Amino acid sequence: MKALAAMGPHARPVIPVLDRLITSRHRVAVYLGDADAEMRADDHLLQQALAARAQITAAPI
């Protein structure tokens, strides 16, 4: 996600994929052996996706 955010407007083609990840009602498959850790990892991934999308769309073309 950090690499996408750093790409700025060059990463705009990935926005539909980020949108699907952000709006998905299903968790990303992360197997950490602990349900709470998996939920935290999924929440962290969501926050990273939201931040990356914001940085990509805020960058001038």
Structure described in brief:
By secondary structure, the chain is mainly α.
Give the end-to-end Cα distance, rounded to a whole number of Å. 19 Å
Query: In total, how many domains does the architecture comprise?
Result: 1
Tally of helical segments: 3
Number of strands: 0
For the biggest sheet, the summary is:
none
What is the H/E order? Answer: HHH
Overall morphology: elongated
Can you walk me through this structure?
The protein is an all-alpha fold and 61 residues long. It is built from three helices and no strands.
Helix and strand topology:
Layout lengths: L1 H6 L7 H9 L11 H24 L3
Descriptive terms for the model:
mainly alpha, 61 residues
